[in-house]
Backbone:
């Protein structure tokens, strides 16, 4: 028996004594998992909880609820998952006439398991490697590490990374100071897309951006000065990545990044050099490959041109350039991953799944990284209802199973793979 969750005006979460939990599409056939460690429950302002009355079978909106001697107006509740998990259902709620756009998180349906006495969320554990475990990040010694590095290194790019590591708790920024695994190298202050869910820049009237974009694009010397010591000495999955949440599109600065890559490779052959990109400029991606880039992750919400372009709102490029970049990277021997921004009820539509499977097979992609799209659900559905490829839902688990059948040896996960994790390439 999965009970409905609701929050009081202070944000404290309760389970309802009678109503059963629903996902956005009703009673979900997908299994719910125990709420993962480091997940959080979040109240959804301006949205009333919706539950199922088991005695009548009716769906009820919870507009008032009695808590002790108080009568309160409750808010709907969702879970926000830690890295390595992919949501399978969206929360159910009724939006009030005046309701704010939700902050940019990936809201997941959640409930209270009455029998087992713990919270659950509708999610899949899609990457069980532990190096991105939140317990290994934001540790008590991190501020001291940051200050020590800043005291001995005047590189201005380090100050941006320090801000991201301490204020935004960006794990790749933190790894720069832990000197391990995948480290961040922000490269661009501008972008050639206007993503509806952009986390570093939002138009007036949009939700608050999750990150403040880097104000000044660094030069090749400063970028290389971050990358060289990390590649030369960092243990674990040694990697540096251009293209972070606090910046725009790195391919718009391909010449500077290419020069930084050349400097890194002149200094050390160790580790992997990766770019996280929208894939908009295949010619510029080729410059990075010529310089020594060995991995790229290309982001997309859909392989269906109308929905892709409605979300990314590209400037002087289109879906065709994105697909050409995917093909180019694979053709040139670069480890090629898709950063798939998943959204239950859209990404798992049969028409959308067909398009994704065709792309993965046609372009011979090495990996699909599943990332839950961080956006107000109603904001994304407003796009999808007009532009998606449509079809019945097969579920996120069904989507993953179809992708694996479409491409033999395809790796599914949430994170970039280091050189020693990639295995033999499948033709």
Residues:
């Amino acid at each position: 028996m999965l009970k409905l969750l609701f929050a009081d005006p202070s944000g404290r979460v309760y389970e309802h004594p009678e109503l059963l939990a629903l996902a956005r599409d009703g009673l979900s056939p997908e299994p719910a998992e125990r709420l993962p460690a480091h997940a959080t429950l979040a109240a959804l302002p301006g949205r009333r909880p919706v539950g199922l009355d088991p005695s009548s079978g009716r769906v009820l909106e919870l507009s008032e609820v009695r808590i002790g001697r108080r009568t309160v107006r409750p808010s709907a509740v969702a879970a926000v998952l830690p890295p390595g998990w992919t949501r399978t259902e969206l929360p159910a709620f009724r939006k009030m006439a005046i309701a704010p756009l939700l902050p940019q998180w990936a809201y997941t349906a959640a409930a209270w398991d009455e029998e087992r006495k713990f919270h659950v969320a509708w999610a899949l554990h899609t990457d069980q490697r532990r190096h991105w475990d939140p317990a290994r990040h934001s540790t008590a010694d991190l501020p001291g590490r940051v200050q020590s590095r800043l005291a001995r290194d005047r590189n201005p790019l380090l100050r941006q990374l320090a801000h991201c590591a301490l204020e935004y708790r960006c794990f790749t920024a933190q790894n720069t100071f832990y000197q391990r695994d995948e480290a961040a190298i922000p490269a661009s202050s501008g972008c050639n897309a206007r993503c509806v869910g952009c986390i570093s820049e939002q138009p007036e009237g949009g939700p608050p951006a999750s990150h403040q974009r880097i104000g000044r694009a660094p030069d090749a010397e400063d970028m290389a000065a971050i990358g060289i010591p990390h590649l030369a000495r960092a243990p674990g999955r040694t990697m540096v990545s251009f293209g972070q949440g606090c910046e725009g599109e790195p391919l718009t600065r391909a010449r500077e990044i290419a020069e930084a890559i050349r400097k890194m490779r002149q200094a050390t052959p160790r580790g992997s050099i990766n770019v996280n990109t929208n894939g908009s400029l295949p010619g510029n991606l080729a410059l990075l490959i010529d310089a020594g880039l060995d991995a790229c992750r290309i982001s997309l919400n859909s392989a269906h041109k109308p929905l892709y372009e409605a979300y990314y709102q590209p400037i002087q490029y289109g879906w065709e350039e994105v697909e050409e970049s995917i093909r180019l990277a694979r053709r040139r021997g670069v480890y090629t991953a898709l950063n798939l921004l998943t959204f239950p009820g859209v990404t798992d539509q049969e028409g959308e799944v067909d398009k994704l499977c065709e792309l993965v097979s046609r372009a011979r992609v090495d990996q699909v990284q599943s990332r839950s799209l961080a956006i107000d659900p109603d904001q994304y559905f407003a796009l999808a209802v007009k532009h998606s490829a449509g079809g019945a839902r097969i579920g996120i688990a069904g989507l993953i199973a179809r992708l694996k059948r479409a491409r033999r040896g395809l790796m599914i996960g949430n994170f970039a793979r280091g050189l020693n994790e990639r295995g033999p390439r499948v033709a």
Notes: The chain has eleven helices and 22 strands. The longest helix spans residues 220-233. The radius of gyration is 22 Å.
